[in-house]
Specification:
141 residues, mainly alpha, three-stranded antiparallel sheet, 6 helices
C-alpha cells in the first residue's frame, strides 16, 4: 500500500520507483523462479502432480469421481458446495495433469478418473515412498 504525505511528490515516476524497489525486494527475498532444468523429469513431474493434489477441493473431487465412477460437473457443485466457476477451475487443473478425463454429452461434461494416468501417478508416489524402506535400517536416527 502506498501512502504519500502532502510534502511528497505524487507523480507516477515516484510511484513507479517505489514499486520497482518493492518488486525487486520481493523477488530477492522470495524463492524466485523454479529452475526445473536442475531436476530430473521424474522429480519435476512428481512436483507438478503434488502441486495439483495440494488443494482439498481437488482431493474431494477425486474422491467423488472414484466413488461415483463418473460424474457431471453440476453434481460436483451440489456435492462440494462450491461455485460452478471454482469447480471448473479445479477440474481444469486436474485435467491438465491428465488425472481426469471428460466427455461432452449435450450441454454437460462427464468426468472420470483416467485409469492409465492414475496408475502412472501412483507409481511416481510409490517410487518416492519406497525409497525410505530401501535406505533406512535400524540405524536410522
Amino acid at each position: 500500500m502506498l501512502f504519500f504525505s502532502e510534502n511528497q511528490s505524487n507523480t507516477a515516476h515516484t510511484c513507479y520507483s517505489y514499486l520497482s524497489i518493492v518488486t525487486l525486494r520481493y523477488i530477492d527475498e522470495g524463492m524466485g523462479i523454479t529452475r526445473t532444468d536442475l531436476f530430473t523429469q521424474q522429480q519435476n513431474e512428481l512436483a507438478q502432480v503434488a502441486k495439483v493434489f495440494a488443494h482439498p477441493a481437488r482431493i474431494a473431487i477425486i474422491q467423488h469421481l472414484l466413488k461415483a465412477n463418473t460424474c457431471i460437473n453440476g453434481d460436483l457443485v451440489q456435492e462440494l458446495g462450491l461455485a460452478q466457476a471454482t469447480i471448473s477451475q479445479h477440474l481444469r487443473e486436474l485435467k491438465g495433469i491428465g488425472i481426469i478425463q471428460g466427455t461432452i454429452e449435450g450441454v454437460s461434461v462427464n468426468y472420470c478418473i483416467n485409469p492409465v494416468r492414475w496408475e502412472e501417478v501412483q507409481a511416481l508416489f510409490n517410487q518416492l515412498f519406497t525409497q525410505l524402506a530401501a535406505a533406512c535400517t535400524d540405524t536410522c536416527c
